[in-house]
Amino acid sequence: MAEEQMTTNRMLHYEIKDPLELNLSYMPFIKNGGLFIPTQEIFALRELVTVELKLPGKKEALRVEGKVVWLIPNNALHHVLTGIGIEFVGDDVATVNRQIEAHLDTSIEVGGYAHGIQKFPINR
Predict the structure, then answer these.
(1) pTM of the prediction?
(2) What is the pLDDT of residues 34-71, one digit of tens each?
(3) In angstroms, how far is CA 117 from the centroid of its own chain?
(4) CB 40 within 8 A of CB 48
């Protein structure tokens, strides 16, 4: 049985304020590239979304089409941000990845997806 893909296409606006936030949000390890988007809105897996993405230092927003590939609910453990992970879809996947990668700060090592994970102070 083929996987059914949802056909809704809601709009999200995500303004990334600085290169560290971009490094933590960008997910190049997803097949076509992807992005973590903090949001309180409720989405379903495979739901299609359009993101108006504003990169650090840019005035014009980049329109990104994506498919929800993971969900972080409001009650998630380890103090992670509530949000969704999207996989880029559509004909302009390579262009979107290039534009995002051009704005990454390569001097910051985040070791893959780490957005929202906070370290707990250890009381000794």
Answers:
(1) 0.79
(2) 999 999 999 999 999 999 999 998 999 999 999 999 88
(3) 14
(4) no
